[in-house]
Specification:
By secondary structure, chain A is an alpha/beta fold. Chain A folds into two domains: about 170 residues, HUPs (Rossmann fold, 3-Layer(aba) Sandwich), CATH 3.40.50.620; about 120 residues, Rossmann fold, CATH 3.40.50. Chain A has eight helices and 16 strands. In chain A, helix 7 links the parallel strand 14 and strand 15. By secondary structure, chain B is α/β, with parallel strands linked by helices. Chain B has a single domain, classed as HUPs (Rossmann fold). In chain B, the strands form two sheets. Chain B has a nine-stranded mixed beta sheet, sandwiched between helices. A two-stranded antiparallel ribbon of chain B has the order 2-3. The N and C termini of chain B lie far apart (about 60 Å). Classes of the chains: A alpha/beta, B alpha/beta. Chains A and B meet through helix 3, helix 4, strand 5, strand 7 and strand 8 of A and helix 3, helix 4, strand 7, strand 8 and strand 9 of B.
Chain lengths: ~325, ~250
Amino acid sequence: MGRILVIAEHDGSELNPSTARCLSCAGDFSGLDCDIAVLAKDGQRVCEQAAALHGVSTVIRIDHDANEHALAAVQAPQIAKLAEDYSHVLGPSTTFGKDLMPRVAALLSVAQVSDIMSVISPHSFQRPIFAGNAIVTVETRAKDKVVATVRTASYQAAAGGGNATIESRVLDVELPTHTRYCGTSGSGDGGRPDLQSASIVISGGRGVGSEKNFALIYQLADRLGAAVGASRAAVDAGYIANDHQVGQTGKIISPDLYIAIGISGAIQHITGIKDAGTIVAINKDADAPIFEIADIGLVGDLFTIIPEFEKLL
Amino acid sequence: MDRILVCLKRAVDYNVRIRVKTDGSGVITDGVKMSVNPFDEIALEEALRIREKGETGEVVVVSIGPDACQQQLRVGLAMGADRAIHVRTDRALEPLDIARILVRIAEAEKPGLIMLGKQAIDGDNNQTGQMLAALWERPQATFVSELTISGTTATAVREVDAGLETIEFDLPAVVTSDLRLNEPRYVKMPDIMKAKRKPLATTELEELGITPQTRVTVLQTAAPPARQKGKMVADAAELVAELKRMDLA
């Protein structure tokens, strides 16, 4: 029998919603117990949040000064050590997990399965390749530990109401000092919902035209209680910060409602939204590829349509 | 630093429309245009700029794969790399074995930096750089959009979900590039001619003493479920009505 270890993503005080989605994936490995590892400087608060998730057996608390910020080179040897007791180690397919998990896999001399979108058996999974243009079913060797990242857009967050035990552990592992964290600048985004877990997302593209015009997108988003996203073109043009980018190289999301405004719909963008419940596209170009996948399309000038739309809500 | 090693993967060109074989055995690659993985091209551009600033002696490009990989190495040489290393194998390799091979090359070449794309646009694994850093026991800076070298250390700005993260690390190190790191230069005709005379060394995989393994087997390749084209509405009022009907507004 195996046992699953999920690596918690957090910012020191809040558990990232990606962890609850990983836990749902872990729940698809029928019969395997699942623990969560929290590596932090002081993990009390994050451990309590992890312990409250449904389906967790034990939360393993690893407090260490070196764990104040998530550095892959520092976390990987600790997780490789913890992995001795597990058959499966899962992390989210966010920039946190993508950075960390391959380093863990290499230390364990095993392959990594990237972006699990469904679990066929404890050693067989489906994952996307070629920007989601093909889906492969892969199988790992039964004798190997499975190290994998979970495509969080493919899973709902696990429910709360759990009451797992929290167990503190001290690991005897040498930690490197060759990598140092200097800081993070994010848009913070004025208390708006988190792009990766919001139920409604409004995104703007090159058609929005300027940083100033993005105010229209923000205004509509606030009206709908939505998170704000953007296409790569809008980020490249400097209209909005990189943490808003939706798509193959940005965030892959699955909101209930996605409204794409002034976005033509390059394949790399579509990859990031195809799990959305309903896709609405507003674009002045009737031939824009976004209309091929949109559930509701509206051809016209966004600068006329958005104010009207807002008024009608 | 004496040199930067840049890894170039031969991958299906990003403009090719991918089609899955009807028998589920893979994607169609026969007769399809192949190019340098775009993220690797960005890594090479950055290495060249570092050399142009006088911060490294030479830029060496490496590719692992069949003879055809030499086309991509020649592109790298035409862009400005000084020499190329080709590790020849006809076997499709997994990221962990690629990383093991690169460590072997790093031990021989002693680069101050190994640069590569954050992922290849075919397998989308996003693993090789991190695995290489782990096995080489050196720092990694992934998803980098800004890189500054200062003597024996470097500073990188990383594109992360929360925004832009800055880390400082000791060299040698592994850096993987994100899209906004730079815009690669166009290759000019005279450079292509010049590239033909630059050194390209070929090593057989077996000579490196690494036996690749199959740890992950692909059982089936399928086309993704397609989203259906929905309905078009005429104006904002119809849009709102439709959203209300669907209980979304």
